[in-house]
Every structure is written in C-alpha cells, then in structure tokens.
Here is the input.
Amino acid sequence: MTALPGDAARRSGLRDFPYWHELVLVALLTALMLGARWQAPDFVTWETQLDLSTHIWELALMCLPMTLIIITAGIDLSVGSIMALSAVILGTAYLHWDLPIALAAALALLTGAAAGALNGVFVAWVRVHPLIVTLAALAAYYGTAVGISHGMPLSNYPESFRMIGGGSVCGLPIAGLIFAAAALVSAVVLGKTAFGLALYAIGHNETAVRFSGIPVDRIKLLLYTCSGLAASLAALLFVGRRNTANTDIGAGISLDVITAVVLGGTSIFGGRGRIVGTLLGIVLIHETREFVSWHWSKAELNLVVIGSLLIVSVLLNSLLSARRRGD
Here is the structure.
C-alpha cells in the first residue's frame, strides 16, 4: 500500500524530533523511581531526596564545562585530580600558611583555573590530543596534591565557610543554588549564543571552523580553564560539606562526570549535546547510585552500575542516531 503524504510527514516528524534521547532518559528515571517506591518507599520521600541531594552538587557542577568540552570532541580526565589539588591548596593555605579563609578559597580557585588553563595550552597550541594531555595531568596533579599534603587530611574550617557546602537558604541548599545558576548560564550560552554555535561547529569540523576565522584555540583554552575552575569550586563545596580536605576526594569522579555527560546524549565524537540532557544524566546516575547504596548497602555495586550506565549511554546514542538518519 502506498503511504499517504500525511503519514510520511508524521513519520518524518517523529524521526526528526530532537528530544528522543531526553524522553528515553525521563522514561528510565521514571521507571527507576517507581521501582524504588515499590521496593523502598522511604527512598522517594521529599525529606530523603533533599538529604541525598547533598551528594550530587560537586559532580553536577563539573558536568557543565565537560559537556561543552565533549561537544567540541575533546575530553578532560583530570577534573578529579584538579579537585583534589584545589582542596589540598585550600587546606594548606588556611591551616599551615595562616591565610584568611576567603584568601585561601580564592587561591584554591586560582589553582584550579591555572591547572585547567595549562591543559588548554597543551590541547590548543601544542596540539596534543586532549585524552593524552588530561591523562598525564590526572597523574601529575594528583601527585602534586599528595606531595603538598603528604597524604594527610586537612580539617577544621570556620563555620562561615562550611555553610557554602552544607548550608541552605529558604530550605534549598546553597550548593544547589550555585549549580542552578551555573546550569542556566551554560544552557543559555550553548543554546542561544554564537559562542555555543561555534562549539557545535568545532565538534563537527574543526578544520573548516579554523578557516572560517573563528578563534578555535582561544575557545578551547577557555573551555579547559572553565573545567578546572568548576573542579576547584566543587572542591570548595565538598570541603565545606565534609569539613575536611584530602587527596582522595576526587577519586573516580572523572568517570562519573563523563558518564553523566555521555548518558545525557552528548556525543563523544563531538557536535551534539544539550545541557538539559546532561541534567537528566546527572539525576539518573545520582538516583541509581543512591538507590543501590540505600537498598543493598553495597557500595562496590556502584562501580558496576556506573560502568553499565556508560555502556547503555553509548548504545542509546547509536540507536537514536540511526533512528534520526532513518536507518
């Protein structure tokens, strides 16, 4: 039977619908929460979710610049080490160098931005592949953090500083409000500005973008600097919440960040991704991990869960890309 023009148009409209990936993530998250409500009703209460949300903000903050970097077909494996180094600098400056806490925090932020900028220099101007650069930086920054702190925790910060990571305003966590502001700015920049269009263009065809006169190197330097700055801000939030800084705070978080971004629909090959997808990826990973720990009380299962979600995210990207092409 010959398809009617209206039927073809409807099929084409469904295939070209741009939010298939986000709808799948919403469906997965809904299924997870319904299953959690059936297995452990206390898990889905507002009080429990608000309490568990304190574990998400550092990860979420680092996912924002990571989304922009991966859209350009880059990657940053060093965010966990930058987070650890910034936390150690904060603790050392305040506890051993006797700097005021505000100055120590500023120094930690500067450290993170400088570490990210150094990555950007090697990626943009030395033209070393970002995977190699940030893998080397991961080891270098972590080793520096261990050397400065000698592997010892740095604790006891003033209550005013601890409010940043653990305080609230009108019942909402301060860290969450900081993330919400950063996410809004990131979404507007990516979706509504020429800078955001340039990021997609770089991911699609960097050579063509260079010939068009767009300053690709400066854009990459800015992105990696922002990634380092976000990691250092995450370190401040973590130290404020836990009241301690040590070299282990960023262990494994790079995998979580990249998994959340890729699960959210950002292509590891560049040229595709949205902040809203990243937000859904963050929430899905967070809720899955927290439910695994809540219901089974086995933290080691989280590694299996994160690895499985990463595989699922790649398969989703492949299947939905094929659907958009009409394969």
